[in-house]
Amino acid sequence: MIQKLRHFIHFFLAFFSDLWGLVRPLAYQLQYQHFKNDLPKKEQIKRLCLLGNGPSFSQIVDNLEAFNQYDFCTVNLSINNQVFKQIKPKIHVFVDKAIWVLRDREDIKQFWENIKHIDWNIILLVPYSCPKWAIQSFERNPCVKVHRFCNNSWNPELKPAKSFRMWLFKKGLISPNESNVTISAIYSSILLGYKSIYLLGVEHSWMRDVRVNERNEVVLIDRHFYGEKEIVWRNYEGIPIKLVDLLQSLYATFGAHLDLRCFADYLGDVKILNCTEGSYIDAYERGKLEDML
Questions:
Q1: Among candidates 117, 130, 123, 60, which has minimal Cα distance to 89?
Q2: Alpha-carbon gap, residue 75 to 95, rounded angstroms
Q3: E strand or H helix at 75, and its extent?
Q4: pLDDT bucket at 238, cuts 50 / 70 / 90
Q5: Global confidence as pTM
Q6: Burial class of residue 186 in the structure, from the number of CB atoms within 10 Å of its CB (0-12 exposed, 13-18 middle, 19+ buried)
């Protein structure tokens, strides 16, 4: 009897917790998205090679001619590298609000300048929270078409609510926790109609490179295909973050990858293959670069 009562109380509390959790996504819809999906879904003939900025990104350059059956998707500040112009991606994704908040930063200045000089048709995917003036600025280049994606999550506990969340994913009204731009890129690519998504340069191996220095600052060796450097992790105000904040971010990121695997399984016809050597992501089937060629 007591066990049944505990089960009922847990269900009751979880139900109202899941219901209350919808308040933030609802506010997001009312403020930004207005219950519309801006991503134009159509059946994609080519496979998609989604490139994170990890060290294995550089493998593409050596095998570029073998990738003519793929569309490319790039993320964040890879636009500042010469490789970006070589591969001519069909899709570029960013989610970091620093792009429009910290425009005086040197690498972001370069980002804005490079957008102006793209001379092939490209889809630029931005979050709905990206201001209108920024979108208008991007589209001054006639080769650039901007589409927006939802970047607001809901993490219910009850099984019926989780099934409902998958339906909301499909409609583009709720997203996985987009604590990393790779999450946004995979999710948006699925909504754009890609059935085969191959991942390169998504090592996500930050845990091996994190330490705390003598000033209690969280220090990371930031590894990218264009090099590596040691940095102190800071927030937008320039204040060093604490280790607990970093761990919470990593928890959200790896949990979101598991959500995307569940979403692919829910759709039934989407395959995500992680071909990144040494990747810490354990949500998707593993492959090798040779599998893509």
A1: 123
A2: 9
A3: strand 70-75
A4: confident
A5: 0.91
A6: buried
